[in-house]
Predict the structure of Ion transporter.
Amino acid sequence: MNTATRAGPAPHLEPASQTGWRRTWFDIIYRHDTPISRNFDLLLVVAILASVLAVMLDSVASIHHGHARLLYRLEWAFTLLFTAEYVLRLLVVRRPLRYALSIWGVIDLLSILPTYLSLLLPGSQSLLVVRILRILRLFRILKLTRYVEESGVLARALWRSRRKIFVFISAVLTIVVIAGAVMYVIEGPANGFDNIPLSMYWAIITVATVGFGDIVPHTATGRVVTSVLVLIGYSIIAVPTGIYTAELINNLREAEDEARSHDVRGCGHCGLLGHAADAAHCRRCGASLPRAD
Amino acid sequence: MNTATRAGPAPHLEPASQTGWRRTWFDIIYRHDTPISRNFDLLLVVAILASVLAVMLDSVASIHHGHARLLYRLEWAFTLLFTAEYVLRLLVVRRPLRYALSIWGVIDLLSILPTYLSLLLPGSQSLLVVRILRILRLFRILKLTRYVEESGVLARALWRSRRKIFVFISAVLTIVVIAGAVMYVIEGPANGFDNIPLSMYWAIITVATVGFGDIVPHTATGRVVTSVLVLIGYSIIAVPTGIYTAELINNLREAEDEARSHDVRGCGHCGLLGHAADAAHCRRCGASLPRAD
Amino acid sequence: MNTATRAGPAPHLEPASQTGWRRTWFDIIYRHDTPISRNFDLLLVVAILASVLAVMLDSVASIHHGHARLLYRLEWAFTLLFTAEYVLRLLVVRRPLRYALSIWGVIDLLSILPTYLSLLLPGSQSLLVVRILRILRLFRILKLTRYVEESGVLARALWRSRRKIFVFISAVLTIVVIAGAVMYVIEGPANGFDNIPLSMYWAIITVATVGFGDIVPHTATGRVVTSVLVLIGYSIIAVPTGIYTAELINNLREAEDEARSHDVRGCGHCGLLGHAADAAHCRRCGASLPRAD
Amino acid sequence: MNTATRAGPAPHLEPASQTGWRRTWFDIIYRHDTPISRNFDLLLVVAILASVLAVMLDSVASIHHGHARLLYRLEWAFTLLFTAEYVLRLLVVRRPLRYALSIWGVIDLLSILPTYLSLLLPGSQSLLVVRILRILRLFRILKLTRYVEESGVLARALWRSRRKIFVFISAVLTIVVIAGAVMYVIEGPANGFDNIPLSMYWAIITVATVGFGDIVPHTATGRVVTSVLVLIGYSIIAVPTGIYTAELINNLREAEDEARSHDVRGCGHCGLLGHAADAAHCRRCGASLPRAD
């Protein structure tokens, strides 16, 4: 992967014009390899983190009442800043609608819309919480760093093991459905297992070894069933780890093999690369190979 | 494994007759590779999921009272549907008794029996919960998909490590028995450790890191013992994961080795084995190699 | 490992005499490869499990009061049986004192002593719990089965990784000591963190993700520290698993390599074994080797 | 790594003078390979452990009141001992300021300062807890043992996987922020989810499978969200383990490869590399090989 390409704008993004202020701002906003665009990114990261922190603190009653005016002003400052950025993003790109409908465009809109809507629908507290999705905007910037390769390795291994993990989750959910029904019959509403969905919630909390303790078995039979369920959960916790580790080791080995195949001797006759370390002849044309050292 | 074979009926299932409606229905029910039989499978999956959901919701008091009539009718609709399917399955197969006594036949019967029995034994609430086993019928259809291979890999690794996991569970249970007895002596009924079986239940919940918190140590000695128990549990949680991961990696490597051993050709001149799949010449002596296909 | 040897008595055990009833009983008790000695083992397993179960049930108040007489008689029956076995074991072995002072001899004695002592020291309830150690006697018999090899693999990997696990436990304990002291200062006795040892107990329960919930942070700072502690615990839970898995994979690979080295070609000239698969000459004397197929 | 070097003083530490009492004490304190310096180390370990234990016990109200005088005297004895050691360390080293500003120098100072400050600032209980950091001084001595290699392997694998673990922690924290906000909206202050930071604390405790149970969902929707959150946590617990295990296995393999590459000799006749350590002849052409040493 070429760093210059990666730090440039995504391939489907093109500037609205090749010259003038639009081109300048396009480079500031969408490119990430010039000093000014890096400063822009940094400013954005700080603004996003500060605005998420403001949303969090605003939900604390004592802070909300003590600093209502300050938080209100801060919120509008962040909203106006993000609105300006959003409008700019649309203005300088060649196909604004396409950007607006992309994942990043939708997240950008969700970051500013709730504040405006709160003017029309006063008291819509839960709407304001949507602003917390601003945190997702961080990943746009994170995507540009070298961490993207690491997350690529992790995600690829996760993607490769998706079928095995689906099978595993199916098995866990079947155990949960049956355990939930059994515990509902054994313990019943008298002991807090009010209905099967609640029992299933309890079974998930238990098999995943969380164990809140708000619902617990009280009968001897229920405790035996719980012990068995817990031992099953304790044993099969190994399965996703095993799946994922095996896949990750495989991934790393393949990457290594590929890396190795790039720096071995080429055949002087036909140019084939990737010969085994002990090969004395080209495996395609049979010509002699230079010594490997 | 041949896809056609896998999608066909299980080897011990044969149609009752080679022609007529029985043959037609046999193909619809037991085969899985024609459009009509696939639609039948899909319909069955939807009916099973809907009926399991109905059983779950029926256990919620408010829903049970608010929609008693609807749920009752739905239940009878599902039961009649599954009964018709069950009778058909028996009619079109050559050896109905053999099918009825197989695992799938028993599960099919358990899926419909409770509703009929509830007419004879009114108020048998816990009997109705047996219907939740319908969820197991999903696996008959899951078995036909490509997920079966994935679960095969997982199950084979689990099967191979069965002895090691048995040894591990024995060690855990011995720790649990001794820890339970020790905590019963240290804490005693005054602190909620009423008897040894209850203490053992607590020890299982603790060593598996669930920790409900309904029973907790109150004495200093008890807390020291608990800390040691928890650290043991925390350290040995690694064991089943290690066992399983090692087995899974082994499995994958064997599959790879086997795949590789199929396209290994020996050099006719010097006898060297283990050539790359695309090699046309021996890498040692440069002699021509036979084509790999 | 030779099965016959393994099923025979341990090497340091010798019969008191080579003929007569002592020799007969020595073979019954200490050997494990004749039908009669196998039946003896089986009887012992059943008696051990039944007696442990009796000790457990005796601790349940309702069962203790309802079946006091039955349990009392059962206990004496088991004690007399195990006493007879213990005396026999000492009588038929050549060096009885050596056996009595071995681990198994001590466990045998601990299994019967508490019942006799309860005659002298009435009301010594906690003494009777010592009888639960009878469960350890099962391992003497388990040792003779093929499971011993599996547990050998597990134990060897655990033994090899002992230093790494010691380092890990030291790191965890240091985190626990510091976190305990910090939480004691932040939360203090008012929030249940009465003193540093109690805070350390809480930190162990938390970092190992057990989380009983009997002691929980109530201040904002305390919750931040707890969150950090939990994330640390969540991340480093990987470490023992990683250590153990890597060791286990290594172990299996070595076992494989060793197995492979046994069935390769020997040099016809000097007899050296263990040549690489592609070797054409003996690596010691340089003589030609037969083709490997 | 050379044992003598490792057991000697750190490279930047030089004695203040090459002869006299300063040199003698420098060797006692900073070297670790003579009998007297080893005894000094042992004495230090015992004093550190005893003083940490005293700090812990002093925080227990009953012990504090019952043994106030003893603990007070012990504390001053340890403080004077550690002060003497600290002053000596500064006196015998060539560049005392450099030592005082190193990590170990700061920890040494933090170990004694609180006791002196408690004379000036009476009642500064929380200050005294700083003394618990004395436990870190143990690692200076642990560093000299063979355990350092083991912890080196563990730490290197942790360091190599730092980027992947950073990505993982970022993903977990994003899930926590969103889950916290969602649960705050769904459950609200009425069910104990007072504000978003508290909800996030709950989400961390839940996703890490600790589950204190002080805050639990009470609505049906909240329980569904919790179940999903728990299943996510249960699945991704595999990720750090996978990362770390893969890295550790890689590390061990590299160490092996490196070890192997040191005794590789090339055949002077045909150039083949990779001979076994005990090979005297090339395995391909049979020519004599140079001795491996």
Remarks:
- The domain at 150-260 of chain B is CATH 1.10.287.70 (Helix Hairpins).
- Residues 68-92 of chain B form the longest helix (25 residues).
